[in-house]
Write a structure and sequence with these properties.
Length: 260
Amino acid sequence: MPAPENTLKTRLAEGRESFGIWLGLADAYTAEIAATAGFDWLLIDGEHAPNDIRSLSAQLAVIDGTGTVPVIRLPDDDPAKIKQALDIGAQTLLIPMIESGAQAAAAVKACLYPPEGGRGVGSALARASKFGAIPDYLVTANDQICVILQVESRAGLAALDDILRIDRLDAVFVGPSDLAADMGYPGQPGHAAVRGAVMQALRDIRAAGKAAGILTTDPAYIEEARQNGAVFVGVGIDVTILSAALRGLASRYVSSRSGM
């Protein structure tokens, strides 16, 4: 029995759009709720949300089998963290702050078992192999691992051509918020200079035959990104969705009370 098919990897390879949201609440119960919404994928954020390896694993477990693909964003490209995320069952990783071809190559290598890569072998202990119930896991896992690298700085954009040459790289994700800060426009991902750089990067990624990704909650930005080749499209964040709904509800009723 081989490793499970990674349907997101297949969609990206075929150039088909997929839509999802960021999960930053760091809670399995809310991840389970999100998994009922019908998104193609849910990204569990290990970079900016208060997650550890156990909370990441718990969220993977409740999303598994729902028809929605879980993605983990790691805090960095540390091979040890990559190994742990794969062993707990993630098949798709988003690795942030990639700024050179060499860094990209090392990150991809860390995701794959030898001889293609350098991932440590411990699958008999791992949820990824259903704790040994997938006998062919070691020889089939590489084919289902989806590697998405995040470019979010001027250095990353300057190295984009080198990054795109890396074999076994499935997608490159452009991060508008960090890029805006690095370009001197903190908090302004929609600034014309930032937006132009983002759209050019998306076009370059698609022209190189890789899937292009982005996260934005601005509908106009989303549509422009799609027109410029983005197919891995993040359209929301659970934290901001919840906070906006709560504040709107409070504003509607608390501000309208009679004072009695």
